[in-house]
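Let's study my pick:
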Amino acid sequence: MKKSLFSTKTMVATALGAALFMVLFMFVKVPSPVPETNLQIAYGISAFFSAVYGPVAGFLIAFIGHALSDFLSYGSPWWSWVVASGISALICGLAYFKINTEGKVSSKDLLIFNIFAILGCAIAWIVVAPVLDIVIYGEPVNLVFVQGGIAFVMDAIVSCVIGSILLITYSSTRSSKGSLTKE
């Protein structure tokens, strides 16, 4: 049985996830050859939290974590990419309704999770971020779509690999329903 999308436990996980996302986003990144585009481990964290706590928690974790990171690092958020981060996690979080994280995660669950993670990254980085960059900031079309394409590839890989590892690890700590028997 899935937890409430708005339980106290989910809200606490959202706050902790946003803080963890922010710290990782600020300090654990690998630069790419494309300007202002980095491989970010934080997206694996938001993908994992999204699958375990739902799309609302995922959106808030990535949106708040990215916004705070930008604010602390640069003085103001780059809203187009902050929104895209949230959208990516929100879409990945739709896996919450389709997968089992209580007990062992099946291959089917991992496949579903990875499909949602890739779909979320594709929509966020190939559509949302570039379009908002053009509309909000008047950025050059060629640059934003190259940045978006690179971000999609890197963030999809990180979301799938780190997210899957965390899901497997987390689910192995959970008891599956009906696993306890009466003697």
The two ends are 25 Å apart (CA to CA). The mean pLDDT is 92. Residues 88 and 123 are 7 Å apart (CA to CA).
